[in-house]
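Methods, example record. To illustrate the input and output format used throughout this study, we show the complete record for 4-hydroxy-tetrahydrodipicolinate synthase. The sequence lines were provided to the predictor; the line carrying structure tokens was produced by it.
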Amino acid sequence: MSIFSGIWVPLITPFADGAVDHAALRALVHRYADAGIAGIVALGTTGEPAALDAAEQDAVLATILDAAQAGRAGADACAEVRPALPVVVGVSGNNTQSMRERIGQLNSLPIAGLLMAAPYYIRPSQAGIVSHFTALADASEKPIVLYDIPYRTGVRLELDTLMTLAAHPRIQAVKDCAGSLDTTLALIHDGRLQVLAGEDVQMFNTLCVGGSGAIAASAHVRPERFVALYRALGAGALEEARRIFHTLVPLIHALFAEPNPAPVKALLASQGLIRDELRLPMTRASEKLAERLAALERA
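The corresponding predicted structure is encoded as:
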């Protein structure tokens, strides 16, 4: 089985009085490892990397990697050997050369892979996208997860582009946020790229048609239930999986009712796990949504 399967959490970056709260960050990694998640995405969009300077990004990644080395429980939670929790690192930008330099810095770290979206804002041609990702994959010693999220980047990865990129030995998976069932099905049928649902409410559909997993911000909350959903489908227990998913849908909708990660942070703060702090231009979830989230958590 590919490493890019199961439920992955795109980890938030907790703050306390304006600074990164490394103690809370470490505790979150341990929490999700114990819940049975497949891996962590560090410095993805949910982690507010655009609001972190270079030194802070490096420090956040160092804390996550150190905490992830403590591992995750297997079938026997008391087992002495706990394999390290895989960590994928988000690398964003629209300057190919500077991204290659960043990848060079990351090559020496014990990471499972890199998550990279199309160059944002400049909207390159599909040929430009192929050349961009090929140059980055050539520079990487780690596997690549493509991130197809056109509503953030302004350009989608067309199916022909994804099929071309799938030929590169280090491009191994895609975080699928494009909203095209035809593309999702074609990629799964082709089989060269592992397909991870990137829209949380679509994870059930994606898994049912053969996707390998999900990178789900909503799995910050009730992570055990998301893991149980994945395992139920893997075991062929469709009715149980459907039941679990329907209990999660209201929570998923609420967690994306306002810009991510504000709702996730509000709910984690209500549980005493972090402080409810974000950095501008992100702002805290509204009081009305926070009350709605708290009610859903109590339900």
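Annotations derived from this record:
Residues 238-255 form the longest helix (18 residues).
The beta strands are 6-10, 15-16, 19-20, 39-42, 87-90, 113-117, 144-148, 171-176, 194-197, 213-215.
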